[in-house]
Design the sequence.
């Protein structure tokens, strides 16, 4: 019995505790990311943004949470009720499940699995189901059109995201997210004679891929300027048009969790994860988690700025960008990077 | 298989079998497809338990993340009447049963064939190095890109031909359709795009 306790129960409880802690911190972070999004948007448009609840409006997200929860949920009479309620659950569960493999500092990860990046890619490719099911189950043409757009958009941009990830993997030689970060300690900066700086990270050596990944991440998370699935001038609110109260909040939470994940992925793949920008004192005194969060905040700031000042794309332009620009570009980069690594022997797997 | 692993095996197995049953039994075709997706996910779980984590995730990325989505859309848009389609479905039950039995027999032969003839044990597949030496993906890559490179390329070519075929079948060049040409738009200069005229007041151009 003690054997059973020490093999299953104790590790299980430890993992559960870690996961709950991670989840609570993540949800609070998402609440403030949502607020930051609104504040940045407001600042660009010379408004004040939410500023009533708490000092500087800092508790606005929590007030919104309370409002959503105590509102009465409405379910359309002609909807498919089970799928209608399942869709937001799927959206939020999958978005949060991906964070299990995200390393936030050296060794700070819930599940340090060898195929971490593939896991993230697989789970985020499922996120489109929340949108499709929600759009179909609502039994409304606006919702269904939104779902159609969203599915085509997410499937298209997943392709280029996949190729970007492959180029990074070619340079690293591992699918483990922690290994990807550690591999960025030595890179282009060291070859240029500037070791231990932020020039070592992949953003410089794979700069075109960094740009492609950033734009594809915007499209993958349905962020403006690619927010066609919920384009309010055409589709009212797209696939979420029939949703209200808690189910709507779950869709929003899933969306912002996906955005946070994409910021984390950009940080891990291209901005060196928890590594300090200069690998010597006093920069190394700051814990890795602070650097990680600072980089995530920086990437999110870019996300928010793009939302604030780029006008919305037209749908055929969006598809053209995904299939005719990003796909050939990322495919060519995979070939070029593979050739360079093979010829120079820089790659980790050059055997 | 012990403890937790057996527990999860039975969970995934029951979900897979139950969902597969519901694919056939569900009244709404969209529900059928959703159950099919659940079957895929449960099968991916079984792959994971068998130590084939790469296959599991590729199953999710390719089948659940791309193929099933298209499938779902076709079913959603077609507005099928399942009740009418199911009339007389029992006529085909014997055929289904025969196909099922053949598949089952193949699985049993592949699994237990070595008991009848020792040579069959080595004939099934080239063994890969144990997981402790080499990760799943590395092992797969080593086999796929060396020993089976010809078949791998051939599979790629077949898919390519199928893709080109699908495009050729659906591509129609409509006459008299104004298409946007991005390079032409970008290449325009003020000299070619606008014409400046001096218009006298009270008179048109």
Sequence:
């Amino acid at each position: 019995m003690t054997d059973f306790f020490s093999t299953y129960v104790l590790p299980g409880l430890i993992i559960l505790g870690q996961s709950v802690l991670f989840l609570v911190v993540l949800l609070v972070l998402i609440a403030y990311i949502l607020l930051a999004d609104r504040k940045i948007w407001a600042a660009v448009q010379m408004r004040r943004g939410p500023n009533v609840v708490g000092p500087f409006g800092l508790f606005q997200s929590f007030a919104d949470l309370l409002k959503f929860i105590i509102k009465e949920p409405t379910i359309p009479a002609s909807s498919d009720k089970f799928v209608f309620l399942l869709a937001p659950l799927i959206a939020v569960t999958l978005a949060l499940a991906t964070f299990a493999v995200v390393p936030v500092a050296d060794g700070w990860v819930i599940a340090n699995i060898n195929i971490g990046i593939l896991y993230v890619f697989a789970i985020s490719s499922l996120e489109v189901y929340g949108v499709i099911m929600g759009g179909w189950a609502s039994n409304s043409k606006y919702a269904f059109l939104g779902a159609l757009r969203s599915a085509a958009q997410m499937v298209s941009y997943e392709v280029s995201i996949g190729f970007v990830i492959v180029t990074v993997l070619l340079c690293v030689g591992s699918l483990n997210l922690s290994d990807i970060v550690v591999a960025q300690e030595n890179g282009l900066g060291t070859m240029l004679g500037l070791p231990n700086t932020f020039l070592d990270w992949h953003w410089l050596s794979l700069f075109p891929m960094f740009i492609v990944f950033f734009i594809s991440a915007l499209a993958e998370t349905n962020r403006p300027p690619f927010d066609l699935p919920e384009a309010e001038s055409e589709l009212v609110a797209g696939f979420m048009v029939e949703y209200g109260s808690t189910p709507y909040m779950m869709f929003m939470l899933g969306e912002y969790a996906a955005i946070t994940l994409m910021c984390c992925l950009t940080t891990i793949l291209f901005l060196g994860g928890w590594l300090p920008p200069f690998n010597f004192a006093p920069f190394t005194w700051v814990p890795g988690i602070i650097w990680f969060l600072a980089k995530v905040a920086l990437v999110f700031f870019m996300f928010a700025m793009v939302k604030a000042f780029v006008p919305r794309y037209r749908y055929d332009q969006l598809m053209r960008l995904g299939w005719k620009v990003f796909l050939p570009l990322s495919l060519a980069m995979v070939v070029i990077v593979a050739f360079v690594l093979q010829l120079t022997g820089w790659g980790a797997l050059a055997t | 298989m012990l403890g937790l692993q057996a527990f999860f095996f039975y969970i995934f197995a029951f979900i897979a079998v139950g969902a597969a049953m519901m694919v056939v039994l569900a009244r709404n075709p969209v529900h059928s497809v959703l159950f099919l997706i659940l079957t895929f996910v449960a099968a991916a779980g079984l792959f994971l338990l068998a130590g084939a984590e790469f296959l599991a995730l590729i199953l999710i990325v390719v089948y659940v993340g791309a193929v099933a989505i298209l499938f779902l859309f076709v079913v959603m848009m077609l507005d099928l009447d399942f009740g009418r389609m199911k009339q007389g479905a029992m006529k085909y039950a014997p055929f289904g049963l025969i196909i099922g039995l053949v598949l089952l027999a193949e699985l049993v032969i592949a699994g237990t064939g070595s008991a009848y003839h020792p040579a069959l044990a080595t004939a099934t597949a080239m063994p890969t190095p144990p997981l402790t030496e080499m990760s799943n993906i590395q092992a797969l890559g080593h086999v796929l890109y060396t020993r089976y490179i010809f078949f791998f390329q051939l599979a790629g070519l077949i898919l390519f031909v199928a893709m080109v075929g699908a495009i050729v079948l659906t591509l129609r060049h409509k006459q008299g359709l104004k298409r946007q040409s991005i390079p032409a738009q970008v290449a325009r200069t003020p000299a070619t795009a606008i014409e400046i005229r001096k218009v006298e007041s009270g008179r048109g151009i």
Summary: Chain B has a mean pLDDT of 82. The CA atoms of residues 156 and 162 of chain B lie 10 Å apart. Chain B has ten helices and no strands.
